Amino acid sequence: MHIAIAGNIGAGKTTLTTLLAKHYGWIPNYETVDDNPYLNDFYNDMQRWSFNLQIFFLNSRFKQVVDIRKSGKTVIQDRTIYEDAEIFAPNLHDMGLMSTRDFENYRALFRLMVDLINPPDLLIYLRASVPTLVNQIQQRGREYEESIRLDYLKMLNERYELWVSRYTASKLLIVNVDDLNFHTSNEDLSKIIDRIDAQIHGLF
Fold first, then answer.
1. Number of folded domains in the chain?
2. How far apart are CA 16 and CA 33, in angstroms?
3. What is the gyration radius of the CA atoms in the chain, in angstroms?
4. Which stretches of the chain score pLDDT less than 50?
5. For position 151, which CATH number holds?
6. Which domain holds residue 53?
7. Is 45 part of the annotated catalytic residue set?
8. Pick the catalytic residue: 35, 78, 188, 194?
9. Based on CB atoms within 10 Å of each CB, which residue in 62, 79, 113, 186 is the most buried?
């Protein structure tokens, strides 16, 4: 089974992936961040490095999905292949930070890849307001994220909401992060686990 967690920068995807993997005994599959050769450059010069960064993520996530299905095990994935193509890349294009030529090339490659893979069995979307995102980004203290603008996070949030409102590829569970502190509260984490149990009961 393939469980995937989606959400904006700072929503808590990695933390929840770790906690759920530990609880259920699932294999965690994390977003490639620390060994991403483009992230620092991208946040310093988005226009120059946007296409390179998005291609890196697309390639990385396609390989992840292929490996997940090959493994035959239950895996929980930190961020999906859809988010890059539905949220990050079009946002960069609309902001004038990715050329139309590069964007169309990227979208064509994405459509080819998506035709070759299956969607996750369950998608968990972490919905968070911009103040919550900013607070959690500051708490984790990644240097390359210090320059992220509030309007950038706001635009991403709007695109996430639009994407989720149209998502029909698999079962969907929406978790309102503003109302929960699953990082430190076992009670809040249990609330999420109870909702996941209800969703995956019909998947086995």
1. 1
2. 16
3. 16
4. 204
5. 3.40.50.300
6. 2-200
7. no
8. 78
9. 79
